[in-house]
Specification:
single chain; alpha/beta; Monooxygenase; 25% strand; globular; F-box domain-containing protein; LRR_dom_sf
């Protein structure tokens, strides 16, 4: 007598909501319980798929060939060179795609140029496709832009800066994308007329993101540049909410674009303007006359005057002073997020302007500068960070473009001045511990702050360095910490060759720990190539689980370049594809290569080297 199969009459949306709280591995386990659960949890497992590398892509094609491809709504394919056959098979295997992101070349595919060449491709199957990110071969983008009606609402493409034919073909086809709401262009040079052409072709546009872009000049003299603010021959783009110029060139010299932004986009809620200056690309000289300097201050302040709905601003390496803050206060702007920094001590003055202003931000990003290596300057800056806002929720501290590696920043001093922080990221920084006089006075003096414990929940170390004692401090002082990300950092130990990362926090319940590569210790201002983490062990006291030593194996080369890269030089890493358990290896025989030891109360997810272990 057969067992009666359980039948669930609940809507699939309920199981989708349940699946949101499960890891990929847990979803896979649920699919193996019974035939009914297999049908219920298969859609949630395949709805959002992220593929990295050729091996995963091959496994993905095998999986969706069984008929589950119609569940896939979002597909991200990174570091894969697809053949023409593979690319053209995707619309049949995944006909219901809403979002597609890939950076591989579709080898052997004929690309469409300006609509003059007809191409029999199956991309017309993607009637639901709304979001497309295509960073190398623009086969899909050209096809969808040359259809009678383009369904795209979000488009992100990378052009070749000196390829005029590619740029011409793009602008020729853009008028078909009348539904476009978000446009991201990488490596492009734009004139005023071309910017206007984008808005004329895409009247629904709400976001423009320009990366590695060059803004061409509109005028030569100060009068010509300033006259841009009085332009009346173009209409305001009232739907525009976000404008980003990331690592853009020409903005410093051609500051008339600031007047264009403030006049063209009066309803902006987010604006980001920055350019990376380094040893190889030094910052321009400060204007020689007071009139030129005043004009640049007025240009950036015009954004604060006319864009009264701003909630988020990022001005890095942009010449500015207190006028911008005064204008935002005068028109009643209430910022939620701000990013500051110009690689000089002038950043301290900008922090003081923020403190004096009425802006009470929740999210702060600060670009550090060279003199932060001086302890007095660093301590003064940390104190001012704590004074910027009484509701500071998130803080990102970056020394990426300062020219200094491993600048020491005391983690405990920062958290004592900003106890309400929930998210903290250190980028290109050495996280240290110190007991300065200010902390001692706070603890023993008449100060209520000594009773306030840091509320930190998510901590990120990226491209920096630290000592294992950091985790002892976190274990004792940050009881709410539940997410820890470590990416390409160097462990500083007593011995030069010590590479054992010991995250021993026995009373913490972590949602996720992620460790992506480690760098061997080196001389103070030098950085070595990141190494693969080969061995790890995990002790979870809640489950009383310790299964010995694990070894990561079968590493494959991987270029993480799906997102836009400002330097255009993606780093090649290697990542594991499986791991094995060595239960019989004693601690005395542990290998000396990069090793991770984790002790905690509970752990939901563990990612090592871009490989999900748990």
């Amino acid at each position: 007598m057969g067992t009666e199969q359980l039948v669930y009459n609940y809507p699939h949306e309920i199981f989708d909501q349940i699946a949101c709280y499960l890891t990929n591995r847990q979803k896979g386990v649920c699919r193996t319980v019974c035939q009914s659960w297999r049908l219920l949890f298969t859609p949630s497992q395949y709805r959002h798929v992220q593929v990295k590398g050729r091996r995963q892509f091959y496994q993905f094609l095998r999986a969706i060939a069984s008929g589950v491809g119609h569940y896939v709504k979002r597909l991200s394919v990174d570091d894969v060179c697809m053949t023409a056959t593979e690319l053209e098979s995707l619309p049949y295997l995944c006909p219901n795609l809403v979002s597609l992101s890939f950076n591989g070349k579709s080898l052997g595919t004929t690309s469409v140029t300006g609509g003059k060449e007809s191409l029999k491709t199956p991309f017309s199957q993607w009637k639901c496709l709304r979001r497309l990110t295509e960073l190398q071969d623009l086969t899909v983008a050209y096809y969808l832009l040359n259809t009678p009606y383009s369904p795209l609402t979000h488009l992100s493409i990378r052009l070749e800066l000196n390829n005029k034919a590619m740029k011409t073909n793009f602008f020729t086809s853009l008028h078909k994308a009348t539904e476009l709401e978000s446009l991201t262009l990488d490596s492009i040079s734009l004139s005023l007329s071309e910017m206007e052409a984008i808005h004329n072709a895409c009247p629904r546009l709400q976001k423009i993101q320009l990366i590695n872009a060059n803004l061409e000049p509109m005028g030569n003299s100060i009068d010509e540049k300033k006259s841009i603010s009085a332009m009346r021959h173009f209409d305001s783009a009232k739907r525009m909410k976000s404008f980003e110029l990331q690592n853009g060139t020409g903005l410093y010299e051609n500051y008339e674009w600031l007047y264009y932004i403030s006049t063209k986009y009066p309803n902006l809620t987010h604006v980001q303007l920055w350019h990376a200056y380094s040893v190889n690309t030094p910052s321009p000289d400060i204007p020689s006359t007071d009139d030129e300097l005043r004009e640049r201050y007025e240009a950036i302040a015009s954004i604060g005057t006319k864009c009264r709905d701003l909630k988020s601003v990022s001005f890095m390496n942009v010449l500015m002073n207190h006028w911008l803050f005064e204008e935002m206060d005068n028109v009643g702007t209430e910022l939620e997020s701000i990013t500051l920094g110009d690689m000089t001590d002038n950043t301290i003055e900008l922090l003081q302007c923020l403190i004096r202003s009425k802006q009470n931000v929740k999210y702060l990003t600060l670009w550090g500068w060279t003199s932060l290596c001086i302890q007095e300057t660093m301590e003064k800056t940390v104190v001012m960070i704590g004074q910027c806002s009484n509701r500071l929720y998130s803080f990102t501290f970056s020394m990426q473009f300062s020219g200094v590696k491993n600048a020491p920043i005391p983690l405990n001093l920062l958290l004592s001045k900003c106890p309400k922080l929930r998210y903290l990221k250190f980028d290109n920084i050495q996280a240290t511990l110190m007991c300065p006089k200010s902390i001692i006075e706070d603890y023993f003096g008449d100060n209520e702050s000594r009773f306030i414990k840091p509320q930190l929940q998510h901590l990120v170390f990226e491209n920096g360095s630290f000592r294992n004692e950091i985790f002892k401090y976190l274990s004792l002082n940050c009881a709410d910490l539940e997410k820890l990300d470590i990416s390409s950092c160097a462990l500083i130990g007593e011995y030069y060759a010590e590479m054992d990362i010991k995250i021993h926090m026995p009373y913490h319940s972590f949602k996720c720990i992620s460790i992506r590569h480690a760098r061997p210790p080196s001389h103070y201002y030098h950085v070595k190539q990141a190494s693969d983490i080969r061995f790890f062990n995990v002790l979870v006291s809640k489950e009383q689980r310790s299964n010995g030593l694990y070894e990561l194996k079968d590493f494959e080369a991987f270029n993480s370049s799906l997102t836009f890269d400002y330097e255009q030089k993606p780093l090649e890493y290697r990542r594991p594809t499986k791991y094995v358990n060595h239960k019989n290896i004693s601690d005395a025989n542990q290998p000396s290569s990069p090793f991770v030891s984790i002790k905690c109360h509970a752990l939901t997810e563990l990612n090592i080297g871009d490989f999900w272990v748990i």
